[in-house]
Amino acid sequence: MNLMYKEFISVEDYNALREAVKWGKLCHEQAQQGLENSAYVISCYDNGKIVGSARIIWDRGYISYLADVMVMPEYQGNGIGRHMVEQAITFIKSQLKEGWKIKIVLVAAKGKETFYEKFGFEERPNDEAGAGMDLWLAFSGS
Ligand SMILES: CC(C)(COP(=O)(O)OP(=O)(O)OC[C@H]1O[C@@H](n2cnc3c(N)ncnc32)[C@H](O)[C@@H]1OP(=O)(O)O)[C@@H](O)C(=O)NCCC(=O)NCCS
After folding, report:
1. Which residues are paired to 46 by β-bridges?
2. Residue 128 and residue 63: Cα distance in Å, rounded?
3. Element (H, E) at 46
4. Could you tell me if residue 113 is inside a domain?
5. What is the per-residue burial (b if ≥16 Cβ within 10 Å, else e) of 20-44?
6. Is the CB of 76 under 6 A from ligand 1?
7. Distance from the CA of 20 to the center of ligand 1, in angstroms?
8. Are 38 and 60 within 8 A, CB to CB?
9. Which residues pair with 3 in a beta bridge?
10. Does ligand 1 come within 6 angstroms of the Cβ of 79?
11. Is residue 74 part of a domain?
């Protein structure tokens, strides 16, 4: 392997990863807006071929969200996911100012909680916090 990390990903490579991990492609406009409005994007290439990515959405205040951590199935288990999450956390750390604190939120895919616990993320629900929740909305005509 000849891995190279970049702080950018094209819509095409992002969608290739989404398909590979079975999340499905997003339409070009929606994917592009999501990537452009991310505070931090990291991608990984092996000899020019996309093999992983992750991104951070951040309000520039105290809330950030770690999203779309994806590694091509044939490249999983090689430390690529770990490196990208570490870099994403490093980015948020670099934004801290005196008196600040920033929370990184994520929604773990089923069975991936242990992967994230290695970085200090705490599983919910727990004794103090309830479960995370989400709501999907889809266009159903105007
Ligand atoms: C989850 C995912 C990003 C992990 O990436 P990866 O490159 O395979 O992981 P790494 O090789 O960097 O593993 C880092 C550590 O996490 C562990 N780990 C990896 N996948 C794990 C899993 N599914 N469950 C528990 N531990 C896991 C590894 O054993 C390794 O532990 P170690 O450092 O103690 O040896 C990757 O499996 C993936 O893309 N899955 C499909 C998409 C997905 O579900 N993403 C998560 C969305 S919330």
Report:
1. 3, 49
2. 19
3. strand 40-46
4. yes
5. bbeeeebeeeebeebbeebbbbbbb
6. yes
7. 15
8. no
9. 46
10. yes
11. yes
Q: Does ligand 1 come within 6 angstroms of the Cβ of 80? A: yes
**119 pLDDT more than 90:** yes
Residue 115 near ligand 1, beta carbon < 6 Å: yes
pLDDT tier at 59, thresholds 50, 70, 90: very high
**Domain of 85?**
3-117
Residue 128 pLDDT greater than 80, yes or no: yes
Question: How many domains in the chain?
Answer: 1
Q: Is 68 left (phi over 0), alpha (psi -120 to 50) or beta?
A: left
Question: Closest Cα to residue 76, out of 4, 17, 36, 5?
Answer: 17
Q: Which ligand 1 atom sits nearest the alpha carbon of residue 77?
A: 11
Inform me whether the pLDDT recorded for 142 exceeds 80: no
The reported pLDDT for the residue numbered 141 is 86
